[in-house]
Amino acid sequence: LFIACAVNAQRLSLTPQVGFENSKTSINYNNLGSFAPLGGEFNPQVSLRLDYKFKQGFGPYLGVSTSRSVVSYNFSDIENGMNFYSATKANMQLRMEAGYQFTTNQLFFNKIRSANSSTSKTKSESKGSCGSYSSKSNCSKSYSSQSSRCQGKSSAAKKIAPKDKGAGVRLQPSVGVGFIPSPKTDVITKMQGGQTTYEYRAGNWNTALLTGMGFEFGRNKQRLVSVSVNYFTGIGNMSKQTVSNVESTKTSVANLESNASGWNMRIGIPFTLAEKGAKKHHNQNR
């Protein structure tokens, strides 16, 4: 008899998540040093993530989440724009996320102590009935019955071993990119009360690098809740911007450059949309 078995397991999951994001946007004004006009701020965040896992644990993911890292920096005096300004948080934006994720095998918090205790108990009982010198005569008279009894206890101990392995966690490191489809204009010039004012949208990135670590908690094969901590840093559309103004014969110029980064924490409930496990058997009889 020849048996060949091939297993291919795949899983598609959807995870809605809620949490918060702490972003920090800094501005470099005329190369005089960077400063954060608002500091680090916490904002609520919602996201939705779709991931596909192969049997090896690797797989791609797609997601969408809210983002609020843009800071509206307003000033009217170009020469003193670093000292006299007003700053507010811009509106929420929608960002797309995509990347690759790895899921480890489940790491159980508790070991199966009952199985170990029952196994040790079986060994001590078998040693007391067949291992001592005083019972050796009885064992010699009914060796076959004692042997079958010891085997029966061993097999019973295996059946007693619980199938419930308890709670555990799967680690999910990931790396990817974030993308904001249509970022707003970086610099806007406006007239207010006969005076020219300037609005610089700092941290107005359209592409960001994402890294993260997820913790998926469950019991046996049941997935209960996932918690993830992620980091992002803007890398696209972060070039230097120039603002200039000419009054009479005097020209004032301000070179503006920004940097945006931050981290978030999310909690969600994973839902398995599809799970594929195909087994093929080929039998050959002689």
Structure commentary:
By secondary structure, the chain is mostly beta strands. The chain is 15% helix and 59% strand. It has three helices and 16 strands. The strands form two sheets. The protein has an eight-stranded antiparallel β-barrel. A four-stranded antiparallel sheet has the order 6-5-11-10, with no helix packed on it. Helix 1 runs antiparallel to helix 3. The longest helix is centred in the middle third of the chain and has 18 residues. The N terminus is likely disordered.
Total E-strand runs = 16
Q: Biggest β-sheet: count, sense, barrel? A: 8 strands, antiparallel, barrel
Number of helices: 3
Whole-number mean pLDDT: 82
The structure class reads mainly beta
Q: Per the principal axes of the C-alpha atoms, what is the gross shape?
A: elongated
- SSE series: EEEEEEEEHHHEEEEEEEE
Residues in β-strands, percent: over 45%
Q: Spans of 5+ residues with little confidence (pLDDT < 50)?
A: 1-8, 130-135, 278-282
How are the elements arranged and paired?
Layout (H helix, E strand, L loop, with lengths): L1 E28 L4 E2 L4 E14 L4 E10 L3 E5 L10 E4 L3 E10 L4 E2 L4 H18 L5 H6 L1 H18 L6 E13 L7 E6 L2 E8 L4 E13 L2 E15 L4 E7 L2 E19 L2 E14 L2
Helix pairs in contact: 1-3
